[in-house]
Amino acid sequence: MATADFEARQLLKAYRKGLISDDLFEAQMREVGNNGQGQYLFNGKSHATEREMIMQLLDEFRCAENFAADYLNQWIAVSDQACVKGGLRAVQHREAYHAQVLEARLRELGGVPQCTVPAERRDKEVALYASKDKTDAEKLLVATEGLDNPAKILSFITDVIDQIQEDQQSKELLRSLVQDEMSSIAWVKEACALMNPAQA
């Protein structure tokens, strides 16, 4: 273990001095990682390098935010309450913006967007939120299911943030987006309680 730590530190020094390329650095770190060190976890999957882990998160988070922006836009179009429509518009703009900055960072790191939302999930959620037969109050009840513990919901992001040592740009980007997500969750819960006083 001590040997692997030493090797990783030496590789990092060489990389920072520009003595080895990105590809060589990643390949050699992967070898060190295969000896039991340098493993980074995201959603239960092990990555040999911090960069690989971050790119996986960026792609999946981008995918989810892009989808949310899409179905929220459709919900806004059929919303039956002005107060809900106003809040939804703010949340939708946040989600669309998040998808853009996440994709931009992914591409800066050399990645290409790959993640897509499964068709079954897409069809189900779009059918609900774009429906003219369901009220905003009913949609908000569905939207708040499972939102009792925002920190747990966002742990797939914060767990990665906690592991980031080198890529401070991605780390701070993600920390900022988590704060936005907390605001969005808080608004959805407040709007649901307002629109559904009996359940509150």
How would you describe the overall organization of this protein?
The chain is an all-alpha fold and 200 residues long. The chain has two domains: 1-37, no CATH class; 51-195, Ferritin, core subunit, four-helix bundle (Ferritin, Up-down Bundle), CATH 1.20.1260.10. The chain is 72% helix and 3% strand. The protein has helices spanning 2-16, 22-34, 50-78, 82-108, 119-129, 136-143, 150-153, 155-163, 168-195; strands spanning 40-42, 45-47. Strands 1-2 form a two-stranded antiparallel sheet. Helix 1 (2-16) runs antiparallel to helix 2, helix 3 runs parallel beside helix 5 and helix 3 packs antiparallel against helix 8 (155-163). The model has no long low-confidence stretch (mean pLDDT 91).
Compile the SSE list and pairings:
Layout: H1 2-16, H2 22-34, E1 40-42, E2 45-47, H3 50-78, H4 82-108, H5 119-129, H6 136-143, H7 150-153, H8 155-163, H9 168-195
Antiparallel strand pairs: 1-2
Helix pairs in contact: 1-2, 3-4, 3-5, 3-8, 4-9, 6-9, 8-9
